[in-house]
From TrEMBL:
<dbReference type="Pfam" id="PF00248">
    <property type="entry name" value="Aldo_ket_red"/>
</dbReference>
<dbReference type="GO" id="GO:0016491">
    <property type="term" value="F:oxidoreductase activity"/>
</dbReference>
<dbReference type="GO" id="GO:0005829">
    <property type="term" value="C:cytosol"/>
</dbReference>
<feature type="domain" description="NADP-dependent oxidoreductase">
    <location>
        <begin position="34"/>
        <end position="211"/>
    </location>
</feature>
<dbReference type="InterPro" id="IPR036812">
    <property type="entry name" value="NAD(P)_OxRdtase_dom_sf"/>
</dbReference>
<dbReference type="InterPro" id="IPR020471">
    <property type="entry name" value="AKR"/>
</dbReference>
<protein>
    <submittedName>
        <fullName>Aldo/keto reductase</fullName>
    </submittedName>
</protein>
<dbReference type="InterPro" id="IPR023210">
    <property type="entry name" value="NADP_OxRdtase_dom"/>
</dbReference>
Length: 361
């Protein structure tokens, strides 16, 4: 598991190579403000090998954050993260590993008949009931998340994951009420509090796509304040001194800045997701930081001129990690050359708060 001693050791080894605030506080120590994502790519051995080499390069170049999920690339992404951790010249206690559970994962490759696979692997086994499913591919029942966490630990080859996200809970809003989804989250958090007490999870969070950046009247909206309250209730129920809810993950980039610009959270809905998260001490990790590659080609000119970086990708990453309250920005890459370019973004200082605000004036 990542430790204070290990992550600070890593920071002291690499910190002088980067700009100010490149390493940022994250329990139990510090984490690089750039992380490697593992979502994109086909479920093939060739892509596995490219991810492995890219991850090893990142770990050995100043990135001590890897983000994955059990469903990414049919469980292959978790497995390659574990393989890269074993191969790289880093200690396990120096690296923060985050993964997610919620979507039903295929195993190794997409099956010829996905419906039959889901029935045989999850319904016939009793792990899930048909009513647990949303869109035939998503579930949040505690027993299911428990089993997926165990499988993730096996895939990663780890005895503990540093950050475990409940993945896209807004998917459940397609089949049940908002209040029912909050109840599901509370039950999931209670189980994760138990796993945290057992030492299997360092902290947990909620990874979303729409939930925290859409307006309250949107059918995919979830209140961050209510999510925090449900985590606190779950912690009290298991006797924890404080909630283990530590992070949210959401899309944020130049073209998708809703998490900063839209007031939709807090008791009166007067705060953005970033403002509310910062106020409550939650760490924010941004996904789609370069728009899944689109922003690596060009940025809006009026924003581009405000940002530091030699390439559009670097400037896009520096925009995302400059946002107030952001702990780290994730970027997916299966190329060692792209890793080098992305890591170099961290050699430039991020925008200060005033300069960042000026972008939106």
């Amino acid at each position: 598991m990542a430790t204070r001693e290990g992550t600070w050791r890593y920071r002291n080894r690499f910190g002088d190579s980067f700009g100010r605030t490149y390493f940022r506080r994250f329990p139990p120590g510090v984490v690089s403000s750039l992380g490697i994502g593992t979502y994109l790519g086909d479920a093939t051995d060739a892509v596995d090998d490219r991810y492995h080499d890219a991850l090893v390069t990142a770990f050995e170049s100043g990135v001590n954050l890897a983000d994955t999920a059990i469903n990414y690339r049919c469980q292959r992404s978790e497995r390659v993260v574990g393989r890269a951790l074993s191969s790289a010249e880093v200690a396990r206690d120096e690296v923060v590993v985050a993964t997610k559970g919620g979507f039903l994962p295929f195993d190794g490759s997409p099956p010829d008949d996905p419906s039959r696979y889901v029935r045989e692997a999850f319904l016939d086994t009793g792990l899930l009931a048909p009513d647990d499913l949303a869109r035939g591919s998503h579930a949040l029942s505690p027993d299911f998340l428990d089993a997926m966490l165990d499988r993730s630990l096996s895939n990663l080859g780890l005895d503990r994951v540093d950050l475990y996200y409940v993945h896209n809970p807004e998917t459940q809003l397609h089949v049940r009420s908002r209040e029912a989804v909050y109840d599901l989250l509370e039950a999931a958090f209670e189980r994760l509090e138990q796993r945290r007490a057992d030492g299997d999870v360092g902290a947990y969070g909620v990874a979303t796509w729409n939930a925290f950046r859409v307006p309250p009247d949107h059918d995919q909206y979830l209140s961050l304040a209510e999510v925090v309250d449900r985590a606190e209730t779950a912690a009290e129920r298991v006797g924890a001194e404080e909630s283990g809810l530590a992070a949210v993950q959401l899309p944020f980039n130049v073209a998708m800045a809703d998490a900063f610009t839209r007031a939709a959270h807090g008791d009166g809905g007067e705060q953005s997701a970033l403002e509310y998260a910062h106020e409550r001490g939650l760490h924010v990790f941004t996904s789609a930081s370069i728009g899944q590659g689109d922003l690596a080609r060009s940025l809006p000119p009026d924003v581009d001129v405000e940002l530091a970086g030699d390439t559009a990708a670097q400037r896009a990453l520096n925009f995302a990690r400059s946002a107030p309250g952001v702990t780290a920005s994730l970027v997916g890459t299966a190329s060692r050359a792209h890793v080098a370019e992305n890591v170099a973004a961290g050699t430039f200082d991020p925008l200060g708060a005033r300069a960042f605000d000026a972008v939106f004036e």
